Amino acid sequence: MEHIRCLIIGSGPAGYTAAIYAGRANLAPVLYEGLQPGGQLTTTTEVENYPGYPEGVAGPDLMEDLRKQAERFGADLRNATAVKSDLSQAPYRITFDDQSVVEADTVIIATGATAKYLGLDDEKKYAGMGVSACATCDGFFYRKKTVAVVGGGDTACEEATYLSGLASKVYLLVRKPFLRASRIMQERVLENPKIEVLFEHNVEGLFGENGVEGAHVVKRQGEADEKHYDLAIDGFFLGIGHRPNSEIFKPWINTDETGYILTEGDSPRTGIPGVYAAGDVADPHYRQAITAAASGCKAAIEAEHYLMEHKM
Ligand code: NDP
Fold it and tell me: What whole-number distance in Å separates Cα of residue 299 and Cα of residue 254?
C-alpha cells in the first residue's frame, strides 16, 4: 500500500495552501482534488476581496494560480475523491473512488462545504448570471439593484443585511410565517427599511433573457388563498445553509450537529494526532477564501511539527 507523509484531501484555497506550505517544507504532499477541483470558488465569477489582486481576479483563475503554486513546490495533485476513511490508528487509511487505498502519517481534511440550493433547474441555468450562494462574494455586482435572498436563518438574515448596504431593495423570502434566525439578526432585518420580508413564500422558478430578471413565487402554498405571482429582481441569493463535506470522517472525528468538524481552539487540530481540518469543512462562521487559505497554512505547519516530533 502506498505510504504518504502528508495527505491533503480537497482542492479549495485551504487544500492548495496546505500543499504549498507542505511542499516547501519537504513533506512530499499528495493532494486529492475531489469532485470539483478548485472548489466553490470555481463557481463564482469575480473575486474582489482576495488580498493581492487590486483589480480583482476570476474565481477559476485564482484557483488555477493556487494550483500551479502548489505544483511548483512539488505537490503531487491527483484526481480522485475520498470515499472512506479509517482514522482508528496511525497510519491513517483513506479509500478513493478509483478503488485506490493509501496510508498516511498526517491527513489534512480540506473538503470544504457545499451551499444548499433549492434544487430548481433555473438555479443551474442562471448560475453566475444572477444566482449566487455568497453575498460577500457577489453582492457588489448588485449595487442599487433589487435582489432576493431565500431563507429565514442566520445565514439568510446576514446575507440580506449585507446586501442592503449595496442594493436598493432586498426581499427576504421565508417559507415559514416566522424567522428562525437569532433575535438580534431578526431585529436587524425587521428594522431595516431596505429589507422587505415576505413570509410564507416559496420560489417556483426564475426568468430572464440574459440573466435573472425575476422570480416566480407562490404565497401560502397549499392554502385556500394560495397566490402565484412574479417578483422583479436582478439577483437571487440562497441563504438556506451549507453542508460541510465531513461525512466520511464522522465515525472518527467530532463534528457539530450540522457536521462542521470541531477543532481545538483556533488551531486546525482535530483531536486525532496528525489529523487536521482546514477551511470551510471546519468553519461555519467566516467561510472566506482568505480564512480558508490561512487555516490550510496552519494545518501544514502543524503537520510539519508533528512529523518532526515523531521523527517520521
Ligand atoms: P439554518 O438551518 O439555521 O436556516 C436555514 C433557513 O433556510 C431556514 O429558515 C429554513 O427554513 C430555510 N430553508 C431550508 N431549506 C429551504 C428550502 N428548500 N426552501 C426554503 N427555505 C429553506 O441555516 P443557517 O445557514 O442560517 O445557519 C446554520 C448555523 O450557522 C446556525 O446555527 C446559525 O446560527 C449559524 N450561523 C451563525 C451566524 C452568525 O452568528 N453570524 C451566521 C450564519 C450562520 P425553515 O425554518 O422553514 O426550516
Answer: 17
Name the closest-CA residue to atom 4, ligand 1: 153
| pLDDT tens track for 81-126 | 999 999 999 999 999 999 999 999 999 999 999 989 999 999 999 9
Pocket of ligand 1 (CB under 6 A): 118, 150-156, 158, 175-176, 180, 240-241, 284
- How high is the pLDDT of residue 254? 97
pTM: 0.78
Q: Is 5 helix (H, G, I), strand (E, B) or coil?
A: strand
Of 26-30, 114-118, 193-197, 246-250, least confident by mean pLDDT is: 114-118
Q: What is the mean pLDDT of residues 27-36?
A: 96
What does the block give as the cell for 276? 487536521
Closest of 2, 11, 31 to residue 303, by C-alpha: 31
What is the rounded CA–CA span in Å between residue 27 and residue 301? 10
117, 120, 154, 178, best to mutate for ligand 1 pocket (most atoms within 8 Å of CB): 154
Distance (Å, whole) CA 301 – CA 283? 19
Q: Among 48-62, 185-199, 270-284, which stretch is predicted with the lowest mean pLDDT? A: 48-62
Q: Tell me the residue type at 33.
A: E
d(CA 103, CA 16): 20
66 and 77 Cβ atoms separated by less than 8 Å: no
Dihedral sign computed on CA atoms, order 245, 248, 251, 253: negative
User: Would residue 6 show up in a list of annotated catalytic residues for this protein?
Assistant: no
Q: What is the pLDDT of residue 87?
A: 98
Cis amide leading into 91 (omega within 30): yes
Q: What is the CB-side half-sphere exposure of residue 163 using CA atoms within 13 A?
A: 37
Cα gap 15→6, rounded to integer Å: 12
Q: Which residue has the cell 517520521?
A: 312
